[in-house]
């Protein structure tokens, strides 16, 4: 999920990022943990290992955090275009 997030959003991140962070985007992983920390207000007893790779972290927590610290400049784009889920009621019998 982190790589997908970077593929979509790295170009929208502020030019003021450290040159090492731009050269080695994996340096930006610290922002994932800072975003989670902000969300749980420092109470890490709520956090499970799945948080570091959850959809909510990359679609809500991380973009919100990056915007709040001025790193993400524009709206986050969709990470993955998902297909509509199958719904039996969408189909009618003819």
Keywords, please?
94 residues, 0% strand, 4 helices, mainly alpha
Question: Can you offer a commentary on this structure?
Answer:
The protein is built from 4 helices and no strands. With 94 residues, the protein is mainly α. α3 crosses α4. The longest helix is centred in the middle third of the chain and has 14 residues. The termini are far apart. About 6% of the residues have low confidence.
Low-confidence blocks of residues? 76-81
Q: List the total number of helices.
A: 4
Task: Look at the structure and give the mean pLDDT.
Answer: 77
Number of strands: 0
Succession of helices and strands: HHHH
Query: Main beta sheet: strand number and arrangement?
Result: none
Q: Any idea what the shape is?
A: globular
What is the SS-derived class?
mainly alpha
Residue share in helix:
40-55%
Terminal residue distance: 42 Å
Radius of gyration: 17 Å
Q: What fraction of residues sit in β-strands? A: under 5%
């Amino acid at each position: 999920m982190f790589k997908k997030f970077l593929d979509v959003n790295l170009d929208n991140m502020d030019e003021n990022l450290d040159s090492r962070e731009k050269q080695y985007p994996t340096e930006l992983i610290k922002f994932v943990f800072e975003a989670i920390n902000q969300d749980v207000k420092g109470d890490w007893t709520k956090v499970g290992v799945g948080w570091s790779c959850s959809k909510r972290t990359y679609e809500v927590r991380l973009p919100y955090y990056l915007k709040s610290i001025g790193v993400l400049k524009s709206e986050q784009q969709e990470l993955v275009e998902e297909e509509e889920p199958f719904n039996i009621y969408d189909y009618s019998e003819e």
